[in-house]
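R.M. (postdoc): so does anyone remember the format we settled on? I'll just put the structure tokens first.
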């Protein structure tokens, strides 16, 4: 974190941090759901064939 000179820059830094954390969390959750869905479909198809 950069050294903040005033309350306004502290608020701004905090907002940026929270936004980045939220964005990364959504990204990870999205990829996890996508991978889980694809894995589930793959297992269903494999079991259906065999």
């Amino acid at each position: 974190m950069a050294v903040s000179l005033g309350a306004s820059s502290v608020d701004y830094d905090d907002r940026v941090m929270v936004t980045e954390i939220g964005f990364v969390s959504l990204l990870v959750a999205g990829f996890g759901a996508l991978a889980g869905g694809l894995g589930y479909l793959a297992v269903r198809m494999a079991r259906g064939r065999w």
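R.M.: ...and that's the designed sequence above, right after the tokens. Also worth knowing: The first helix runs from residue 7 to 49. The mean pLDDT is 80.
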